[in-house]
Structure formats: structure tokens, C-alpha cells
Write a structure and sequence with these properties.
This protein is elongated. It is built from 5 helices and no strands. Helix 1 runs antiparallel to helix 2. The chain has one domain. It has 131 residues and is mostly helical. The chain is 80% helix and 0% strand. It starts with a helix and ends with a helix. GO terms for molecular function: G protein-coupled receptor activity. InterPro entries: GPCR_Rhodpsn_7TM (IPR017452). This is G-protein coupled receptors family 1 profile domain-containing protein. It comes from Adineta steineri. It is found in: Membrane.
Length: 131
């Protein structure tokens, strides 16, 4: 009896729990993109890092959560297509690594800004952040 109700509980948690997670994540990332594209924030390299972090995070959420929603009412494409399974996994890992690297670059930029040497501080620029 309990074992047969577990898939229904799992579907309910996915349908309602992940929906809230997804909606709040997308809304927050959109607000971040709006804020960091304003003229006052475009002057600092850290805003470039946070803007790219928001874009990567929104893409990551969309890439990983939409197939979960689709598989609630339709057959799971990952179990039917080996190519789709590999591409979805690979792109998901690449987006996750881009998020991590962006955070590391933002931390390095903030560390460089706190140095006493002018030459080291000059490494923190918008041109370097865009590269």
C-alpha cells in the first residue's frame, strides 16, 4: 500500500515543490539581470560577473527543470533516446561548471581590488571581466 503511493507523492512534490523553486529562481535571476544592466552598475567588473552568473543560472534552471515537468505527463525522453540523455547531461554539467567558474572569477576580482599595489589592482577592469 505504501509502496504504491510513493510515486504519487514524488509526482506531487515535483509538480508543486520544484515549480515554486523554478519560479522563484527565474524571477530572481530576471531581477538580477535588470539590476545589473543599469548604467550605474555597468561600471564595475563585479556587475559583469554577477550578470553572467544570473544568465547562466537562469539557463541552468530552464535546461534541467523543463524536462522534469515534461516527464510528469509524457514518456521520459532520457530513457528513450541515448543521444538526448548524453546531450542533456553534458550541457547540464557545462552550465553548472560555468556557474562555478563565474563565482570563482568574481571572488578573484574582489581579492585583486583589495591589493595595495596599483599594478595588481589595475587587473580588475571591465575589459578583463568581459574576456
Amino acid at each position: 500500500m505504501v509502496i504504491t503511493s510513493l510515486p504519487f507523492i514524488q509526482q506531487g512534490m515535483i509538480r508543486y515543490g520544484i515549480t515554486v523553486y523554478f519560479a522563484l529562481g527565474i524571477i530572481g535571476n530576471i531581477f538580477n539581470c535588470i539590476i545589473f544592466t543599469q548604467i550605474t552598475y555597468r561600471r564595475t567588473p563585479s556587475s559583469i560577473y554577477f550578470l553572467s552568473l544570473s544568465i547562466f543560472s537562469a539557463t541552468y534552471l530552464i535546461w534541467l527543470v523543463f524536462p522534469i515537468f515534461y516527464s510528469l505527463n509524457h514518456p521520459d525522453l532520457q530513457s528513450q533516446s541515448l543521444f538526448y540523455c548524453k546531450v542533456r547531461t553534458y550541457v547540464g554539467h557545462c552550465l553548472g561548471q560555468c556557474i562555478r567558474y563565474t563565482i570563482v572569477f568574481a571572488c578573484i576580482d574582489r581579492y585583486i581590488i583589495t591589493q595595495r599595489s596599483f599594478h595588481i589592482r589595475s587587473l580588475s577592469s571591465i575589459q578583463m571581466a568581459v574576456k
